Amino acid sequence: MNSPVKIKDLCFRYDINSENILNGISLEAERGEITAIMGPSGSGKSTLCYCIMGIIPHIYGGELKGKVHIFNKPVSHMKVPEIATKAGIIFQDPDTQLFSPTVEDDIAFGPENLCLERSETGRRIEKSLGLVGMDEYRYSDPGRLSGGEKQLIAIASVLSLHPEVIIFDEAMSQLDEESRHRVKSVIKELKNKGKTIITVEHENGNLDIADRLFILEDGDLLEKDINNYRTRCASV
Question: Cys bridge to 128: 73, 138, 156, 180, which one at CB 3.0-4.6 A?
Fold first, then answer.
């Protein structure tokens, strides 16, 4: 089976005179699987997400070596709009992804930029809001929503592009317990629909939904036995 995300011997540094942030890492993420990545602050977790999404090298520069493929296509050879229909990312702060006067406008932004027909855009808005349980907020002002509600709308805006790979870059770090529970429920539903989920975490408590765990530290990515890791964390 071909993995939706394949990374092989990936090295990256932002400046030619600096050390590698990512030092020859490899990773495959499968359909219907939640892959968690943890590591200390500054270890390169977000940088890895940017490489998968094509933000590196298309937006941020640096020295990149190795291979990053989405559905067997090199990300470096894909245009940004094409990547957006294959993979989506939800960031830590939902305010970075919400900028329109209404929820509907935020979710419509992506489909409209793909020049989809108005009727198709409407269907995608409705479906995306339904997936995150935010139907009643379609005409609301995102600025008046709670942090958890904003994050759900940010997820819906990504889902409107129908990506098969979805990355959560510490997307639950600013949420209270109830909001984290709602986001986790959405992630599990996406997994059940066969989506490929990569979630970057800094809290052990969010690993309950993950199938696999990798630790990124000192530029190296190592897989850990997630059950043993959970047991050790629970005993501390």
Answer: 156
Residue 3 lies in a domain: no
- What residues does 196 pair with on adjacent strands? 33, 165
Does residue 14 belong to any structural domain of this protein? no
Closest CA to 132 of 144, 119, 143, 145: 145
236: confidence class by pLDDT, cuts 50, 70, 90? low
Number of domains in the chain: 1
Q: How far apart are CA 83 and CA 148, in angstroms?
A: 26
Contacts of 184 (CB under 8 A, 6+ apart): 172, 206, 208, 209
pTM: 0.94
Count how many Cα atoms sit within 13 Å of the Cα of residue 225 in the half-sphere of its side chain: 4
CB 189 within 8 A of CB 133: no
SS3 134: coil
pLDDT tens digits for range 104-151: 999 999 999 999 999 999 999 999 999 999 999 999 999 999 999 999
Instruction: Kindly report the CATH number assigned to the domain that includes residue 168.
Output: 3.40.50.300
Residue 169 lies in a domain: yes
